[in-house]
Design goal:
The chain has about 280 residues and is mainly α. The chain is built from twelve helices and four strands, in the order H-H-H-H-H-E-H-H-E-H-E-E-H-H-H-H.
């Protein structure tokens, strides 16, 4: 990793072909950053800074801190170059400032139970809604996925590609946002949604988005829809950000491992069962 050098930029970036490549590379970097953020969040949940400083390898800590520092400098400098008229307000996926200012709001046990029931019902309804339009995974894709997923799972999963459409916002979002949950997952912006054994793609699937969706399918298989939903809802209420929910963090982390130039071979189901055994969900 090297600091950004503005002298490397040129008018060639206005050419459509380099612009397309640049956009693709930026999206890839965003996914890698999200995966790293999830991994860092898991560290923060399980270990104190004092424990990490005391027991972790010094060179590993130092390199991680240096990498994070360079990333901060790069993106801070990039943000300053964005014209004021094009600058965006805080994204909808970030918690509203009111959540921090009003920590007293805590959902009751009854409200949490109701939310779990609503989400569980929604997942089942969406599965039935898209089932008739779903088709099996193509053999070429199965061949790339089979070292990580069982043949039984790959044969069971069905996929749907929404051409020119997107999964709509769930009906219960309005009530949840009214209660202060402004950082709900924006389903219309996601690459894919996994509804038990049906994967719906908002845009053309890639190997990364397919892998990510299949991780969730394995989680549903191992945990069951009720337990999956309970873990997701309770963790989201605690963290208020969907990508720090362990179920989501694991999907991002494993997809990142899969996309490495020399990926390690592993069983996703074994990783899911290990996290369950370790109480990491």
């Amino acid at each position: 990793m090297y600091p950004y050098d503005s002298s490397n930029s040129s008018s060639k970036s206005e050419d459509p072909a380099p612009a397309v490549q640049m956009t693709s590379e930026l999206e890839h970097a965003q996914l890698e950053l999200l995966s790293a953020t999830c991994a860092a969040h898991q560290l923060r949940l399980h270990y104190s800074p004092a424990d990490l400083a005391r027991f972790a390898r010094r060179d590993g800590l130092r390199k991680s801190a240096e990498a994070a520092g360079m990333l901060y400098e790069f993106y801070s400098a990039l943000e300053k170059t964005i014209p004021q008229s094009q600058s965006m307000s805080a994204p909808a996926t970030e918690p509203a400032s009111g959540l921090t200012a009003e920590p007293a709001f805590q959902p009751t046990a009854e409200l949490i139970a109701s939310a779990i029931q609503l989400v569980c019902q929604y997942l089942r309804q969406q599965r039935e809604h898209y089932l008739l339009a779903a088709r099996p995974i193509e053999n070429q894709i199965k061949a790339r996925m089979w070292p990580y997923f069982s043949a039984e799972l790959l044969d069971q999963i069905r996929i749907v590609e929404l051409h020119g459409q997107r999964v709509p916002t769930p009906p219960f979002y309005a009530d949840a946002r009214a209660r202060g949950f402004d950082s709900l997952p924006e389903l219309t912006h996601m690459d894919s949604l996994t509804f038990l054994d049906i994967v719906v793609f908002n845009q053309a699937p890639t190997d990364r988005s397919m892998f990510h969706a299949l991780v969730h399918a394995v989680q549903f298989h191992v945990l069951g829809v009720e337990r999956y939903t309970e873990l997701f809802v309770r963790s989201f209420i605690r963290t208020r950000t969907h990508f720090t929910v362990p179920l989501e963090a694991q999907a991002f982390a494993l997809a990142s491992k899969f996309m490495r130039p020399a990926p390690e071979r592993f069983s996703v189901e074994e990783r899911v069962r290990q996290w369950l055994s370790d109480g990491r969900y």
